[in-house]
C-alpha cells in the first residue's frame, strides 16, 4: 500500500471498527492506550498518519496485531505475499525502514517484520504487554539491541530472542547496513481486547 492518504484512511476505518466491536468510547481507549482522545479522533477520521509507536499503543490496548489496522481484506487459507505488499510503518532520518509484512491476532498476536537500519540509526520500540516475546534474525550487518540495562549484539546469521515488555532499542552501531527479520508474539489475547 503506497498511497499515504489511502493507508491513513484504512488505518482510521479499521481502528474504528475494532474499537466499536469492543464497545469502547474514545475516552476509554485513550485511558487504555495512553493516546489522547483528540489524537484517536483524528486517526479514525483519517486526518493524521499515526507513528508506529502510537499504532503499537492502540493495538496493545485493543488486543490486536498492528497488522489488523492495515488490512484491506480477509485472509484466505493460503496467501502469497509479495515484497510490495509489506507496509512501511517506520522510516529513519537517513533511509532506514521498518516494514510490517504480515500479522495475525487469533489465537495469539503474531507479527512478521522486515527491518533495514543504516549505520548510526536506531528505532525505539515501545513496551509490549507482559508475556510478549520478540525473535530477531540478523541477515546482514551487526545489530545492537538494548532492553533495560542489557545490551546484546548479534552478527549476520545470529538470532536474538527476548521478552519485549520493556522499552527497547534496535540500533546499528556498525559500519555496514543491518538487515533483520523480526517476529513479535503476544500470547493468549488474540481478538479478545481488554
Automatic annotation (TrEMBL):
Domain of life assignment: Bacteria
Protein name: Cupin domain-containing protein
Amino acid at each position: 500500500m503506497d498511497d499515504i492518504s489511502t493507508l491513513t484512511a484504512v488505518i482510521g476505518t479499521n481502528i474504528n471498527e475494532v474499537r466499536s466491536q469492543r464497545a469502547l468510547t474514545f475516552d476509554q481507549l485513550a485511558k487504555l492506550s495512553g493516546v489522547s482522545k483528540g489524537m484517536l479522533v483524528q486517526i479514525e477520521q483519517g486526518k493524521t498518519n499515526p507513528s508506529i509507536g502510537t499504532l503499537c499503543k492502540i493495538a496493545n490496548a485493543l488486543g490486536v496485531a498492528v497488522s489488523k489496522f492495515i488490512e484491506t481484506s480477509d485472509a484466505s487459507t493460503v496467501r502469497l505475499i509479495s515484497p510490495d505488499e509489506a507496509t512501511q510503518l517506520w522510516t529513519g532520518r537517513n533511509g532506514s525502514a521498518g516494514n510490517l509484512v504480515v500479522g495475525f491476532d487469533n489465537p495469539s498476536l503474531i507479527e512478521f517484520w522486515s527491518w533495514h537500519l543504516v549505520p548510526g540509526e536506531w528505532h525505539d520500540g515501545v513496551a509490549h504487554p507482559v508475556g510478549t516475546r520478540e525473535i530477531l534474525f540478523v541477515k546482514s550487518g551487526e545489530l545492537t539491541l538494548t532492553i533495560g540495562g542489557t545490551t546484546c549484539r548479534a552478527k549476520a546469521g545470529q538470532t536474538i530472542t527476548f521478552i519485549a515488555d520493556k522499552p527497547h532499542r534496535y540500533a546499528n552501531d556498525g559500519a555496514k547496513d543491518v538487515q533483520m527479520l523480526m517476529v513479535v508474539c503476544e500470547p493468549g489475547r488474540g481478538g479478545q481486547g481488554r
